[in-house]
Amino acid sequence: MKKDNLTILLLVKGRDLYTLRWLFYANQIKFPYYIYIADGGKDSKINQIVKNKKNFPNINYEYVKYPFDLTSKEFYSKVLHALQITSTPFVALASNDDFFFIDGLERALNFLQQNSEYVASCGNVYDMYMYPCEQLGDFNKVYGKIELKQKVYPAMNIENSTSIERLETFMFKCFNSFLWQAVYRTKALMIFYQKLFESCITDLRFGDFLIYSMTVASGKIKKTSNFYALHQSNPTESLGLEIIKKNPTWLDWIQNKSWINEFNNVAKYIAEVISYCDNITLEQANKRFKRIYLSLFGEVIIRIYYPKFKIYDIKNDCDIESLKNYDEYKNISSFLQKVPK
Fold first, then answer.
1. Contacts of 27 (CB under 8 A, 6+ apart)
2. What is the greatest pairwise CA distance in the chain?
3. CA 114, CA 318: separation in Å to the nearest integer?
4. In angstroms, rounded to a whole number, what is the distance separating the alpha carbons of residues 269 and 168?
5. Is 228 helix (H, G, I), strand (E, B) or coil?
6. CA–CA separation, 308 vs 134, rounded Å?
7. What residue ranges of the chain have pLDDT lower than 50?
8. pLDDT score at 136
9. Phi, psi for 267 (deg, rounded to 5)
10. Each residue's pLDDT tens digit, 198-243
11. Is 277 exposed, middle or buried (0-12, 13-18, 19+ CB in 10 A)?
C-alpha cells in the first residue's frame, strides 16, 4: 500500500550500480513511500534506465538530474532545492549505499505524527561489509556475501528540556552520524539546509555537524527502533572515505587553515538556535556552545594518544546477533546474493 506522508530523498553522485541496486531492491519489496532521486553526478547510462519507470513498476519515484556536485555548494543547493519542493510533511535522506528497514521507518514516522515537540526520529544504523566477488565483474562490490561489522551508529533518545542540555547529550553520549538517515519534519530540515547554504561552509565535516546540531538544538530526538537501517562500509568512491583520507584524525583536521573560520561560522548559526530556544543572548549561547564543543574536541584529541581515555560513556545497545535473525535483514542479505537480470 502506497503512503503519502513521507518522502525519501535519495541523494546520488556517481556510483551508478549502487543506485540501480537501491532501486531494484525497493522495487522488489514494493517500497511504500515516495522516492525523489536527486542526481548530482555526471551524465551516464543510468539516466535513461532510471527515467524509464517501466523498469521499476512497483515504486513511486521521480528522477531529477541536477548540476554536477563539483563542490559542497552545489551539493547543498541540490539538497535544499529537493527539500523546498517536497510536499510530504516528513522526509528522510538516503545515500545509495543505505538500506532502510520499513518497520523502522514506520515506527519513526508514527511517533513524529503523534509527538509535535520532537523534530526527528530514527533507530540504530548498522554497518555491513561486502566481500568482493571477482566472478561478478563490474558488480563485484555491489552484490555478494555481506557481513555485519561492529562499527555501528547507535541512536539515542535526546529529550532534555533545553537546547544546551540536548547538545551536551548528543556530543558526549551519542556523537555519531545516526541522524543522517533519520525521519525529519520536512519544514525543519529545509530550514536547517537553508542556514547551511547561507553559511557558505565548505568543510563537509562541519556541514554535517551543523545540520545535526541545529536538529538537536531545535527539538527532541526519539529513538524508536533497534533495527532501522544498514549502511555499506566499503563502497567505491565514497565521499566519507575521501574525507577520512584527507584528514585521518581530528588533529589533522584542526591544522587546516580554514578550520577556525569555519568553526566560528558554525558556532554562530548554532548559537542562533540556542538563543531562540533557551531565551538567552547570542553571546551567552555562543560561549556555552563553544565550551561544550571544545570539551568534546579535547577528549577526542587525547584519545588519539590514549585510546582508553574517556570522560563519558557512549551507550551502544546495537544487537548484531539479533539483527541476523531479523526478517528484513534476511531479505536484504538474500537479495544481495544475486545480480538482478
1. 56, 57, 58, 59
2. 62
3. 26
4. 17
5. strand
6. 39
7. 1
8. 74
9. -60, -40
10. 999 988 889 999 999 999 999 999 999 879 999 998 765 555 555 5
11. middle
CB 286 within 8 A of CB 294: no
DSSP assignment of 179-194 equals GGG-EEEHHHHHHHHH
The Cα 131–Cα 60 span in angstroms is 31
What pLDDT does residue 279 have? 97
DSSP 140: T
Q: What is the DSSP string of 240-277?
A: HHHHHHH-SSHHHHHTSTTHHHHHHHHHHHHHHHHHHH
**One-letter-per-residue 3-state SS of 152-168:** EECCCCECCCCHHHHHH
Domains of the chain in sequence order: 3-335 (3.90.550.10)
Query: Scanning the structure block, which residue is given the C-alpha cell 550500480?
Result: 17
Give the length of the chain: 341
Q: What is the rounded distance in angstroms from the CA atom of residue 145 to the CA atom of residue 337?
A: 6
